[in-house]
Each structure stands twice: as C-alpha cells, then as structure tokens.
Design a protein that fits this description.
four-stranded antiparallel sheet, Gyrase A, domain 2, Isoleucyl-tRNA Synthetase, Domain 1, RNA-binding
RNA sequence: GCGCCUGUAGCUCAGUUGGAUAGAGCAGCGGACUUCUAAUCCGCAGGCCAGAGGUUCGAAUCCUCUCAGGCGCGCCA
C-alpha cells in the first residue's frame, strides 16, 4: 500500500515538472508514514516540506499544487488534505483496503514474503558458546535474536547461512579437562586439588562420572587422563548445547571449529598471506599484527612468546575464511563484553582489503536475573548461573523466546523469575497467542453454525465499515514493510511489538461484539459475516506468520 | 585516563531512523461475562524524554559539553 502511495506521489511530482507547475529540481528524500494520530488519515507525507527550500515556495503552496494535480488513476485515494505546517494527509478508499484481505487469503503463510534481499548471501554467526559449560541466559538471548533474524532475512529474500563457531582449542578446553579429572579423583580423595580457575558447576561432576564409565581413568597416566577428559568433556558439552538449541528451535547450517582451523593449516596459510602483505612484524619475541593504521588503538599480538597463537589469530583466519565463501555480508552476534574486540577484528579485515562494513556486529547487553527481589549474579567459573534449559523448564520455549525478543539487543534485559514462573498470564506472549486462539474459535463457531468461508474475493456490499475493522487491515498492510525495515536495521524486536499491537486491535474489536450483537463476526447478515470472516482470517494469518518468524507456536486453542 | 552502550510514567520498556497532542505492559483506583474464549476489554491517574547549549519550518531522536549507571581497555579466554 505504501508502495502504491509512493508511485502516485512520484508520478504527480514528475507530471508537475513536465507541465512547469513546479520548477524542475531533484526530489529530496521524503517519508510516507502512518501517522500515530488517526485523525491525520491513513498515510502522511512530508514531501512538500522537504521540497520547500529548493522550490523557494511555502510548503502549503506546494502541498496544494500536489493535491490539485494528483495522478491517482486507480482511484486509490478517498481524500487528500493539507495539515499542520505542510503535511499532506491521505485516506485510502475502504474498498482498496478490503482488497488486501483477498490478497492475504490467497497468500496465506506466504503473506509478507518479499524479495528485498534479492538473493544476497548473508552469513549470520551467533551463540558460538565455548563447549566448556551449558548454555546460559546470555546465550539464549543471542540464540533467540540470531535465529529470528535469520528467519526474517530468509523470508525477505536473503540467502541466509547460520553458523556456530566452536572455540574448542586452547587453554579453556584444557582447563575443562583438568576440572573434570579433578572431580573424578575427588570421588575417592576429597582432598585432591582443584585447578585454580577451574569450572565449578555441578555439571563437571556429572561429566566426570559419565566419562569414567567409558574409560578407566585410573589406568591412564595423569596427562593422558586429563587430555581424555578434555576431549570427551568437550564432545559431551557440545551434544548438550546442540540438544538445548534444538529444543529452543534453533538450528545451524554449519558448525565451524577452531581446532579445524589449526589442523587444516588454514590458520598458518592465512598468517603467511598477511605476512606477505607486510602487516606482520616481530617484537619482544612475539609476532604482532599492524592493526593501528586501521582504527585500532594499538597493534595486537598474533603469536605469543611461548609460540602459542592468540585467540585473535584464529579469529582473523576464521573471518577471512568467511569472506572467501562468497558472502556479501556477515553478521556476528556477540556479548557486549566483547565490544572492545570489534575495532580489532575490523582492522584485521581492513588490512586485507575488506571493507569494515562487510561485517555487522550486534552486541547483546547483559541479561540480569532477578529472584526474590534480588539479582542473581551469573558466573560460569563460580558455578552459579541459571541455564537456558532451566529457564525453558520453568516457563516454556515460547515465553523465553518472546521475552528475549521484546527488547532491543543493546539495552540490558532484566528477567524476573518470580513473575514469569508464578503467573503465566503476565507473560506477554500469551496475549498474542490468545488472539490467534480466539480467531480460531470464531471459525469453530461459524462452522458449528454451518457457515463456511467463501473463497471468493471479499464482498463489500455488507461493508467493513467500523473504524476498528479498518484499523486492523491497515496494520496488516504494514506487515511486509515492517519485515523489510527489520532487515535493514537488524532489529527483530520490532516484530514482537507489532504483533502485540495487532493482537490489541483484535481483542478490542472482539469485545465490541460482547456488548453489541451486530458487531459480532458471525451474524444473521450472510454477506457481512463473510466479509468479517475474511478479516478475522487475515488477522489470524498475519499473527501466525509473525509468530512463526519469532519461532513461537500459534495455538488454535488455549 | 581512553573507548563502546544506556538514561523516557512508581517498575520494565517501545517510540515508524528528524514529524503533528511522547506510547504500551506491570503496579494503583473504578467499571464490563446468560452472548464468537474474561489468558480479554473500557475508564481514571501517572512525564522538565538525566541536565545545559547548538543545528532548522520541526528534536526524545542529529552535534557539543556535563552528570549518572553498565561494560571493555592483557603476549587471558
């Protein structure tokens, strides 16, 4: 609908240029928006205001010229008025709005799909938790954000690949092995020392017991036993992580491993390539990458004095490898505590001639957990944390996903366990799901009375006349452009607000019928009933499509 | 000290990328089920958009500074 408005406006302005009514200038960027005040019509544009300076005329004059010469061949418009300092407010004819219901009825689950992405290849990397412990709330937030973003990008015509990068090399996996081995020995000898920075969670003991059942650790020399614990522990944690993610309805196309980077020689080759470019140098016995000319604060160490590579080294190899796969864009979802890392990795990319814009990093702010009015501090090392699995057990996958997606990723999120555990109805997700279930119940009612929806285009002789009805259709018309905006801004949380608004319009409408029988959907008037059923079917479809993109069930009964 | 993020109703947060009179939910008060699902709806109350300047037809939104909070600044991972 917005596109059709835009077509009319540009045609009108160009026509005015042709006929010399407006002096020929470039058209500055202007906005067609949905006013928040219904009295301002269905759409409003500021085009005459942004034209004012180049036309050297008053905005209201230009607005009048545009209105008097509107090229509305298809009779889309009901009215166009000048308002305020020079806005033009438009109203669309009711029959045009109702045409949308026919469109949704035909497209069904496909309504909202578009080709804004034009098949562009995008790689989205998210979660990427270390396989040294279970997923916690921060990972859950990243999983919900990344997964929903991918679903929406794919729906908008992007060619999306989802990747999980496994940091499975280096010291922390060794530390996992030491922690597990120590717990194993402590079964017999409680005084056996525990590594200083070891992982304290209860799951370490679970791992120790499970691993010792597969292999008699007492028979191995200590070093081998620790290595075995590290390897097995890593594998088992990864299985747990995959299981949790799967239950959370998150799937990945590729699992990329840091160990593979080392073993395949890719890390070595990448560094040699950079060395040939002239960005590596030796200092104090270590190897450094010259990142400071590319916006980083200082140069960074790639290989330590002791010969070990830093994480930065494998991250560079990993990201350069991503570029080689033909993706025109990459999105990373990281915890906000890694934000200092962004300029560094972009500098490394720049040094290799890759634009920093190729990579977008979404930083997720902290998830704080509250219980009994107190904040629960989370720390994997100290072993005190709430896992994603525990949260799913407590409130269900739907509620967890919805709550995580209600907030912008760069604002911190408070998760109140008491509220969410005790009173299900306080969960905003039920508000949206209930709207869907209600719509379904209307169809059950209609069916029970022997009324079936006709497949024919919506007949308006009965008329969808109520403002409440038009408001819903207008909201539904905005669904595709909302999805496109989400792709442009990478802000999927806007979908939860959209769905809540649409559900509110529907609940309000539904309640009209409890007061006034004529406002019910199923009435004695057959034509009106058909039109309203098409409306309800439209709402049901859009909510179902939106919930599907959020990865949330759309129940038919509640 | 430097950098990134945040500051909007009592609380948790939106705010269509610069638009018209700043919006929800929860908490509070008062109403609506003999009816298509009350997990709902309606009404009341609640605001110096942290503060001060600036940019322009127009600022919660953009720029500068100040204040407050979170996070990060390793040859750690």
């Amino acid at each position: 609908m917005k596109n059709r408005m835009n077509a009319i406006l540009t045609a009108t302005i160009n026509d005015c240029f042709e006929r010399g009514i407006l002096s020929r200038t470039s058209i500055p960027p202007y906005v067609i928006e949905i006013p928040n005040n219904p009295a301002h019509g269905h759409f409003a544009t500021n085009v005459s205001m942004v034209l004012a300076s180049s036309q050297r005329r008053r905005p209201t004059d230009i607005a009048k010229t545009i209105i008097d010469n509107l090229k509305d061949d298809q009779h889309l418009l009901e009215s166009a008025d000048i308002a305020g300092p020079g806005f033009i407010n438009f109203r669309i004819r009711a029959t045009e709005w109702c045409g949308l219901l026919t469109e949704i009825g035909n497209l069904k689950a496909e309504y909202g799909r578009n080709d804004a992405g034009k098949g562009e290849k995008v790689l989205v990397e998210f979660v990427s938790a270390n396989p040294t412990g279970p997923l916690h709330l921060g990972h859950g937030r990243g999983a919900a954000l990344g997964d929903t973003l991918c679903r929406i990008l794919a729906f908008c015509g992007y060619d999306v690949a989802r990747e999980f990068y496994i940091n499975d090399a280096g010291a922390q996996v060794r530390l996992l092995g030491e922690s597990v081995y120590s717990r194993f020995r402590q079964i017999k000898n409680p005084h056996y020392p525990f590594p200083e920075n070891g992982y304290h969670g209860d799951y370490i003991l679970d791992l120790a017991i499970a691993i010792s059942q597969k292999m008699d650790l007492n028979k191995l020399p200590e070093e081998e036993a620790i290595a075995f614990c590290a390897q097995k522990g890593k594998e088992m944690m990864l299985q747990e992580i995959k299981a949790d993610l799967s239950r959370f309805r998150v799937v990945f196309d590729t699992w990329s491993s840091e160990t593979d980077l080392h073993q395949s020689g890719l890390l070595h080759d990448t560094l040699e390539m950079i060395r040939e470019d002239g960005y590596l140098y030796e200092k104090d016995g270590a190897t450094w990458l010259r990142t400071s000319p590319f916006g980083d604060d200082k140069d960074r160490v790639i290989r330590k004095k002791d010969g070990e590579f830093t994480y930065f080294a494998s991250d560079i190899a990993y990201h350069l490898q991503k570029c080689g796969k033909g993706f025109t864009r990459a999105v990373n979802i990281w915890g906000a505590d890694h934000h200092g890392y962004v300029p560094r990795i972009k500098a490394a990319l720049s040094a290799h001639g890759i634009s920093p814009n190729w990579l977008s990093v979404l930083l997720i702010q902290l998830v704080k957990l509250w219980e009994g009015g107190q904040e629960i501090r989370m720390s994997k090392r100290a072993g005190s944390f709430v896992t994603l699995r525990e949260l799913m057990d407590a409130v269900g996958e739907d509620a967890v996903r919805f709550v995580f997606l209600m907030k912008n990723h760069d604002s911190p999120l408070d998760f109140d366990m008491d509220l969410v555990k005790k009173r299900d109805s306080d969960n905003p997700v039920y508000y949206v799901q209930y709207a869907h279930a209600r719509a379904c119940s209307i169809f059950r009612k209609a069916e029970a009375e022997g009324i079936l929806m006709a497949g024919a285009p919506v007949d308006l002789s009965g008329g969808l006349i109520l403002e409440e009805e038009l408001a819903m259709i207008r909201a539904m018309a905005d669904f595709p452009s909302l999805l496109m905006e989400i792709c442009a801004t990478l802000e999927p949380h806007r979908l939860t607000y959209y769905l809540t608004d649409l559900a509110a319009l529907f609940h309000r409408y539904f309640n009209l019928g409890t007061k006034v029988p004529e406002y019910r959907v199923v009435t004695a008037d057959a034509a009106l009933t058909q039109a309203r059923l098409a409306l309800v079917e439209g709402v049901r479809t859009v909510i179902a499509n939106g919930l599907r993109l959020l990865g949330i069930d759309a129940p038919e009964k509640m």
